[in-house]
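Practice problem 4.
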């Protein structure tokens, strides 16, 4: 009797194990597809983040695959975010192109802002315009302290040109440092400063009127190295968007871009050119359709 009970007990356990194993195998493809289809991205904290997420969705709108999106709950430093994308804890981030970033992460080498990020105008303190009116050359600019993010690709570019750069880990702190006199100017992509002035309306800041600092600077979507299929999906979609005109329509319809091009008046500014020594050899500088030509504006 004991043997029969013991045998029935073991049979029941094996049946349960088999049932659970079968259920796991049936659910596994769905679970993997869900995990692979979820895009975990950085927090949408600025209008630039909204633009980049919209561009990502534009690229994926040409894909047959279904994707869902999950936003981070907090704003992370660039260093931490880069590490999390590299390890696969986050799926994607966006920042300026550099050899260092392209070695760590998987870039989609389509300049999201058509190189507009490489046209930098300055946020300055109200009342300081006369000082900048006297700047005519790059040597003149070297006497001005410029604020930048500690890990930004732009920071290395400015330093390589011999410019005086003061850094901070997080972007919001730079606006307060500028007003507080820690540095004298905050170079921004031409589409950025007007919205930022609205965001920081309580600070005594304005946009400098006469200068534009120019260098080649793509701004890329970067994916975790484990997300090669997703990156290819996005790249393929954006190439199709370029070919059918959707990319340019999205770019020029962006309120910040449209407002910036109207207000910056780039053609009337004194141009100071510097090199970008951090450009990857794979930067698509030979594809004019990817870059903004201010002479065509």
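Answer key:
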């Amino acid at each position: 009797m004991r043997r029969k009970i013991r045998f029935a007990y073991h049979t029941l356990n094996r049946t349960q194990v088999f049932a659970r194993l079968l259920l796991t195998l049936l659910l596994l493809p769905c679970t993997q597809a869900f995990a692979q289809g979820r895009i975990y991205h950085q927090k949408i904290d600025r209008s630039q983040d909204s633009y980049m997420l919209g561009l990502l969705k534009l690229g994926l709108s040409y894909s047959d695959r279904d994707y869902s999106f999950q936003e981070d709950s907090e704003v992370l430093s660039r260093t931490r975010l880069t590490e999390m994308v590299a390890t696969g804890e986050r799926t994607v981030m966006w920042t300026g192109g550099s050899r260092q970033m392209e070695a760590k992460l998987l870039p989609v080498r389509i300049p999201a802002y058509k190189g507009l990020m490489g046209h930098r105008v300055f946020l300055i303190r109200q009342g300081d315009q006369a000082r900048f009116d006297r700047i005519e050359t790059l040597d003149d600019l070297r006497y001005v302290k410029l604020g930048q993010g500690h890990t930004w690709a732009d920071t290395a570019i400015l330093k390589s040109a011999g410019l005086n750069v003061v850094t901070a880990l997080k972007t919001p702190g730079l606006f307060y440092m500028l007003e507080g006199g820690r540095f004298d100017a905050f170079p921004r992509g031409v589409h950025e400063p007007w919205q930022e002035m609205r965001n920081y309306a309580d600070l005594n800041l304005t946009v400098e009127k006469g200068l534009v600092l120019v260098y080649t600077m793509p701004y890329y979507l970067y994916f975790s190295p484990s997300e090669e299929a997703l990156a290819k999906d996005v790249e393929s979609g954006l190439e199709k968007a370029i070919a059918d005109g959707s990319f340019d329509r999205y770019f020029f319809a962006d309120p910040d871009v449209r407002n910036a091009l109207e207000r910056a008046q780039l053609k009337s500014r004194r141009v100071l050119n510097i090199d970008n020594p951090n450009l990857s050899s794979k930067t698509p500088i030979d594809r004019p359709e990817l870059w903004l030509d201010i002479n065509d504006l």
